[in-house]
Amino acid sequence: MHGANFYDYDKKLIDFSSNINVFNMNERLFSIIREDFDHVNVYPDIKAREAIDNVATYLACDASNIILGNGSIEIIDKAIHRASRVVIFDPSFYEYELRASVYKKELIRIKYKDFKINFDELNILKKGDLLILTNPNNPNGRLLKKEELIKAQKICKEHGATLLLDEAFIEFTLHDYDSIKLFKDEDVIIVRAMTKTFALPGVRFGFAYAPKDFKDYYDELSLAWSIGFIQNEAAKLLVGSEEYLSQTKKYYHEERARLKNLYKDFKNFEMIDSDANFYLIKLKKHNDEEMYKIMLEKGILIRRMQGYKNIGKNYVRLAIRTREENDYLIEKLREIEN
Fold first, then answer.
1. What is the pTM of this model?
2. Within this chain, do residues 64 and 76 fall inside the same structural domain, yes or no?
3. Residue 169 and residue 194: Cα distance in Å, rounded?
4. Is 35 part of any domain?
5. Helix (H) / strand (E) containing 53
6. Are 122 and 131 in contact (CB under 8 A)?
7. Are 227 and 327 members of one domain?
8. Same structural domain for residues 88 and 200?
């Protein structure tokens, strides 16, 4: 149901299934940890105040609105726990469905139309509902326009529903708005993480900008010392990361355009437009399971549509990796095409 399942195989694979930044700040993190390592035998601050302050600085918002989680999924989990019903657009991240099932919440699916929101469908919202929008969406990578977000939030407000924006991949896009400034005083939860952008999936550090009522609810349910030494150290990377983020945005913007141009030569593989660090390809000859097996034989791990609903079996998702690795992928696709 997720990418990065290379643990299932005993051979070396290039992982195009998980969407992690090709850049990282590992050396700086190691230096920070080494410098503070004497603190590892001391209980961390139960309120994680330093980490919260660093996140607030990064997001340019008030620290009183910040919540932290063991990955962004912990925050999403508790938002689903609080909701009366959960409303999602398909296809989207499988964990929303899974967490709703765990808490026996009614899950309402609305199908994207050409990967775009059909706003008329949102009239089914009721008071207490949670509408989750992935921005940019997973698996196709489309970034919502500012006008779309404002319209979705307005409908939520009219119906007494809460809007949750899962923005795990937002820093890979050339977005022209700041969701936090846009919805500063509204019932909107804006979730992000260090997993993708900072290439730290092993650290499990998520954070969110949240309205006071949800923050109070979240804090009441949270376990003591849920943010440990490593997460607190990782949060220090957020401050002063502007150059790193600029490098990330520039690379992925240029590489998306380069790949789009390369895919024009294919008859059996169509690259779907994306704003993120991953994209879908539409398969004209094979289904996703067949393509998965073919690529495994060539030493490449890709993401099938297993777990995604209302998308069919003629798509696979691919991460944008280094230019050299992307060229290797294109070379293997040419072999299949020919």
1. 0.94
2. yes
3. 10
4. no
5. helix 49-59
6. yes
7. no
8. yes
138 plus 229 within the same structural domain: yes
Report d(CA 95, CA 132) in Å as an integer. Answer: 11
CA 76 centroid distance within chain: 12
pLDDT of residue 114: 85
Specify whether 303 is located in the same domain as 174: no
* Beta carbons within 10 angstroms of residue 29's beta carbon: 19
Range(s) of the domain holding residue 169: 40-239
* Residues shown for the chain: 338
Round the average pLDDT of the chain to a whole number and report it.
95
* Number of structural domains in the chain: 2
Angstrom distances, CA of residue 327 to CA of 265, 277, 286, 334 = 14, 15, 21, 11
Residue 166 phi, psi (nearest 5):
-95, 100
**Residue 320 belongs to a domain:** yes
pLDDT at 271 (0 to 100): 98
Residue 210 predicted with pLDDT over 80: yes
Distances (CA, A) of 243 to 23, 25, 33: 12, 12, 21
Same domain, residue pair 115 and 217: yes
Kindly provide the residue ranges of all beta strands, DSSP E only, lying in the chain, ordered along the sequence.
14-15, 66-69, 85-90, 106-111, 130-134, 162-166, 188-193, 206-209, 269-271, 278-283, 300-301, 315-319
Identify which of 302, 279, 280 has the alpha carbon closest to the alpha carbon of residue 291: 302
pLDDT in tens, 98-139: 999 999 999 999 999 888 999 999 999 999 999 999 999 999
Residue pair 203/231 in contact (Cβ under 8 Å)? The answer is yes
Is residue 310 a contact partner of residue 109, using CB atoms and an 8 Å limit? yes
